[in-house]
Amino acid sequence: MDHVQRPTFEASFSMSNQSANINPNQLFTQFGAKSLSGGAGSGQSFHKYSQNLDFSSIWPYDFEQVVKTPDQVAPFANNQMGQTVDWDPRAMLSKLFFIDQKIHQVQDIIHSTIDIEGQFSIQPNELAVKQQLVTTDLTCIISQLISTVGNLLPSINDTLLSNISPVGKIGNTVGSPSSFALNGTLQQNEDFSLEKNVVMQHRDLIRSSTDSGDEGIKPVPVKNHDVKVHKDCVDRENLPLGSYEVLELKKEEILAPHTHFCSICKKGFKRSANLRMHMRGHGDEYKTPAALAKPRNEASSEPVLIKRYSCPVVGCKRNREHEKFQPLKTILCVKNHYKRSHCDKSYTCSRCNTKKFSVLADLKTHEKHCGCDRWLCSCGTLFSRKDKLLGHVNLFPGHNPASSMGDVKASGGTDQGRKIEMITEIDSLEPNFPGNSVDDVDDDPCYFFPLNFDSFKFEGLNDSP
Amino acid sequence: MMRTPQPPDLIMAVLSVDLLVQILDRLPDSGDRKSFRLVSRGFLSAEALHRRALRVLRREFLPFLLRRYFALESLDLSACPALDDTALAAALHTAGGCQGLKAVCLARATGIRWRGVEVLVAACPRLEVVDLSHCVGIGDREAAALAAAGGLRELRLDKCLGITDVGLAKLAVGCAVLERLGIKWCMEISDLGIDLLSKKCRDLKVLDISYLKVTNFCLQSVSCLEKLEDLTMAGCSQINDEGLRFLNNGSNSLRSIDVSRCNNVSTWGLVSVIEGHKCLQKIVAGDCFPELVPLFLTKLSGLRDTLNVLKLDGFQVSATSLQIIGVHCKNLGEIGLGKCRGMTDECISELVTYRADLRTIDLTCCHSLTDNALVTIADHCKKLTCLLLESCSLITEKGLDHIGTCCTDLKKVDLTDCAVNDTALRCLSPCLELMVLKLGLCPSISDKGLVHIGSNFRKILELDLYRCTGIADGGLAAIAAGCKSLKKLNVCYCVRITDQGLKHLSFLEELSDLEMRGLVHVTSAGITAIAVGCKSLVELDMKRCYSVDDAGLWALSRCSEKLRQINISYCPVTGVGLCKLLGSLRCLQDAKLVHLTRVSVEGYEIALRASWDRLKKLKLLSGLRHFLSPGLLQMLRARGCRIRWVDKPESFCLPFSLLL
């Protein structure tokens, strides 16, 4: 364990130092004393940070407060100034040397993992930690490279600093949680310099991977964090890993009809307001305005840990042990998710008798539109919306909207019934239709006098009415 | 009996069929052709061999005609009364299919439904052009039947109210080679349908989406049509500049664009269209935005070599703006400036000094124009063919004198409401090519003026004398003597006209359209003369001819075989005459029968039953709605007849029938 941890720790420390003061060489030559103190300061404030790390990206104001401690501001300012000064080839060289070193370190880590794998089986957790370290280092290298480029081309300095997109992109391609978090942080406080944030995130990660086990709720390490919109709860907030508390309710709790219980008579209620109304009957002390008021979170003054929920079913994507874990946002989301995904579908649509639902609201939504599938394609596919049908027709050559639209619109009943009706109607009409028409014409007397035809047609007047 | 066939055979020996066909090639006139085919059977069969286009006026002859004229390529059934699915199917059945038929016109054939369309498509495998406009009953089912004609290139569906996006989708899928499509007034069609159309029919060249409730999205899809040349979208009020900006990409080969009456389009939209298409030939932007901004005018200079037609009705114009147009648009042949505000003589002179080759100038309702404008036009535009000056009340014979002497190519002149007199007509007399002349609301014109018309304008086809109260029978005599090819004549409210005048008019054999409202001195004798003389009469309007009675209707029903549209409102006719009229006129399709005070409800009932199934449009007093039997109304409706109920109170004579 030690063998594995030490080089990375060293690396990350040096890295953090390094990236805080963009290039040590330059700083030493120009602001030697200051930067030293800044370095020491950052070392001291390390612990301070680690306490706030989890919220750093969600609570920008908090973060700002911490950053504005004097010893932190100093390197930040240096950093800014250092970039405006013309670039120094020596400084550049030292930077590149640093990057080179860094790459070697990463190589070492990977080698060591291979060695360990060869010797004895290691815990998957350990492997995950290693991978994380590698990605962290890689991100660091990339950010270093970018800052080097920024020094090379002073004209794009500003865009690099203010615009998050290049780093954001790189972060995404790396696909590491750190870069992801970095992105989130940057979006929230763009004013901060890039390197600063990188450092913060790295410390963050290092802490989370090394000092784990101290606290009860630990952030679950995650390798890939896909962001997708999900039915259960639209979760586009891009919370960085570990910035929230994950709670897991038991199955019985989820399925319980009542969530609020009277402490005296144990009666259950679905809504807290109903409970409060009920409590009035237990004594005058529950009738005060304070007792009847909606219990407010005192959280407005101090930051509260954001709560997210995990599904109790192991293996579910919404379970915290899943490697692509996506947390559920509220208790209601948990309930709906659990019912939809892990319970029987007990509600059946009374109209079509095929669709089944486990959440009553879903059934009601369906029943509103059930039987409205009146857009029929020639291939037999039914659509509930016209634009969907036309899109389908556009997609598949040879398909076209079926001809029964008018009839379907006019008559009621089920779809199949309508189709049959339509077909029989056509059948009954078509075969005898030409015959009928011919009979009609045979009755017409004019029809038999071809010789008279010209006089009829062109001299008109001779034609008797 | 034995001899009769001999002479034709002898002629045929001299003139072989191919020679006859050669002769027919040089016979454009329908009357000459009629004489030709009446010569003999041989001539008739030669004519049948030669004929490519046919317009049918009677349903009962349709099967026979189709069998005789087997080489037909174009068939026009728009004037065929009482045509329904059964009749069409039977005709096509007896003819054994029309293998060569390429174009069919079924406009206003309200009796045609999906079965008829289906049979038509099946019988004519080479069908390329179909016109179903104004068949208001046409819907998706008919569209589906039509979609089976895969080779369809041109399709007109104006005012087919029942067609929805689904119907259009079927057509788009079925007729992938469609090049021209008109879906004006198909109110059910939305963006979705147009979107699919533009994805499926990539060859579309001409598209008319006027008055549809389409939005900018539709233009986004239309802009991807690479071959699109002509886009008409008049009155699409939901389209604005952002939509037109989609046309900026220049990915289609637009030649002509019509955005008239699009209320939300402004100069910027048009500018973006012009930017995208450097070859625009026609811009119609009337009545959509009031200001001509300089940017638009400068952009027009980009189209200097191509722009041919520019219509800017209802704009605020100035001398400078018209000067810019005149200088930049080198190829301009037609300009529309109707109802333009700020139009002065100076504007006109600025325009025409640079554009001497203008052919058509529309100055309708430019009230402040004077003779000076006409003088400058006459001095510069020697090739002018069409000059519209309606309501330019300041112009006099002096200006027209210049026009007459300089612009001798004039074919169409509109002087409605210009208060011109006989001298002005004499001034126009050098314009021997004149075909259309409108002189409505010019009460100072007398018979002398009409003598000028009759003696000079021999080629005239259309003459409008609406409310020219100065004219009398003598003038009509001059017209009847001179203008032998006259087809349309309007003498409404020229109250001095009597039966004698109509007797003169009866010598106009070509006359097809006669409007004679409010001729109170005309009696049935005059109508009889018209009925006997004007064999080609198709449309007759004798509303408020208070002296015409049943005898006139008898004459019409006996002689006016081709009469298709009639208005006898307010005439003192009785039920018998009406019954005779509606019962015997085989081509009658449109009748206006309002305030016939002497016709009883029974009279209406019998007359309408006697009309059988030929009527397509009917105008009746709304009071009758409750008195006519429901069965009759149902039958009329089932035959595709549309009844318009009007609610016009007539102060002094209540409907006679209701008093009974």
UniProtKB/TrEMBL annotation, chain A:
GO terms for molecular function: zinc ion binding. Gene3D superfamilies: Classic Zinc Finger. Keywords: Metal-binding, Nucleus, Repeat, Transcription, Transcription regulation, Zinc, Zinc-finger. It is found in: Nucleus. Transmembrane segments: none annotated. Residues 260-287 form the C2H2-type domain. Its main location: nucleus. InterPro entries: STOP1/2, zf-C2H2_STOP1/2_C, Znf-C2H2_STOP1/2_3rd, Znf_C2H2_sf, Znf_C2H2_type. One of its GO terms (biological process) is response to acidic pH. It comes from the Eukaryota. Pfam families: zf-C2H2_STOP2_3rd, zf-C2H2_STOP2_C. This is Zinc finger protein STOP1 homolog isoform X1. It comes from Elaeis guineensis var. tenera (Oil palm). The lineage of its organism: Eukaryota, Viridiplantae, Streptophyta, Embryophyta, Tracheophyta.
UniProtKB/TrEMBL annotation, chain B:
SUPFAM superfamilies: RNI-like (SSF52047). This is F-box/LRR-repeat protein 3. It comes from the Eukaryota. Signal peptide: none annotated. Pfam families: DUF7885. GO terms for cellular component: SCF ubiquitin ligase complex. Residues 408-580 form the F-box/LRR-repeat protein 15-like leucin rich repeat domain. GO terms for biological process: SCF-dependent proteasomal ubiquitin-dependent protein catabolic process.
